[in-house]
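Exercise: predict the fold of this chain.
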Amino acid sequence: MMRALSALIKAAVFHGYTEASQLQSLFPKDFHKNLRDLLIKIMMDNMNNWRNQAVNSQDFLTTYVCAIELASTSLPRMVDFDWRVDIKTSSDTITRMAVPTCILQMKVQDNIDKIGNTPDVQNVNVELSKETLDTMLDGLSKIRDQLSSVAKR
């Protein structure tokens, strides 16, 4: 019973449900009405506290995100990365050209398809010009700022 209640609360927190009708959708149609209403009332009273605890608890997020990834299709996950700057040179009898480029090497883990299986890790190499790298860094900065503003709430 405790596992089922814990899973129910985690699902409600994960989906951000705050209204009784949303929480009601988590219960089976034939669930006891009075017990369902009591649980919904308790969940609504404690939702803000549980949401704050979830944000502060890396263990909760790791466990629940793994469960969600198994239940649905997810994007590959970057495991590690490395980078270097190379200089492309070319010459002819008149001029020399030196163009810096960034080589980004990422280790990307495939989707988890079954519990107990270790997904494959692939190496992905990307070559970025200075302009492309600037665009990517600008986009990542915007993502960082948005994540920071959400985390402060």
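Check your answer against the key: Residues 2-71 form one domain.
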